[in-house]
Amino acid sequence: MKIALFASGKGSNVKNIINYFKHNSSINVQLILSNNLNSGSLQYAKDNNIKSYVFNKSELANNIVLDIMSNNNIDLIVLAGFLLKIPEKFIKEFNGNIINIHPSLLPKYGGKGMYGENVHKAVIKNKEKESGITIHYVNENYDQGNIIFQKTCIINKTDTHKDIAKKIHTLEYKYFPEVIQKLALKNSKNI
Ligand code: GRF
After folding, report:
1. Is the confidence at residue 177, as pLDDT, over 50?
2. What is the pLDDT of residue 190?
3. Residue 170: helix, strand or coil by DSSP?
4. Residues 176/180/182/183 CA torsion (nearest 10 deg)
5. What's the CA gap between 145 and 168, in Å, rounded?
6. Is the CB of 102 inside a 6 Å radius of any atom of ligand 1?
7. What is the pLDDT of residue 189?
8. What is the whole-number distance in angstroms between the Cα of residue 92 and the centre of ligand 1?
9. Residue 186 CA to ligand 1 centre (angstroms)
10. What burial class does residue 51 get, using C-beta atoms within 10 Å of its C-beta: 0-12 exposed, 13-18 middle, 19+ buried?
């Protein structure tokens, strides 16, 4: 089972997923891809001798990135803090094998512009008592694919958006690799 990780930002989830599967003989983090030359994910790829690619929006829209996927026999695409929209071509080609993690309890606080601290600031503004993470399949609409997994965390009245981000990351580090592993095992049984 070969996984490609897509990331745009800091890449701490990428780091965590790489470490989780480092010694796994059946699940292999094969590629790291980013639209941002400064993404931390590229350094983690380097540190772990994983191939990486940087591409721009138009390369994502044409066949360049898709070709990279097929040349590397990628089975599952994992979006870990990836900010560009995935083109429909990908979704058709991968037939459901693209997943994303979102830092809220979808359908709340999803959609265009809802990423990073924007999400947590909106949660505070609405005086939510809880937030959490959602891992979901990717379809042609932002954050609307079928939900695979959710986990909540409590929001205290005094929490800042940074406090919430910390709580969310803790959940992501614990559960995202576990969910990827479960999906990968399920998929390999279907082959
Ligand atoms: C995560 O909170 C994830 O849910 C969201 O973007 C953030 C990425 O963080 N989609 P990092 O780049 O992995 O540190």
Report:
1. yes
2. 55
3. helix
4. 140
5. 20
6. yes
7. 58
8. 25
9. 25
10. middle
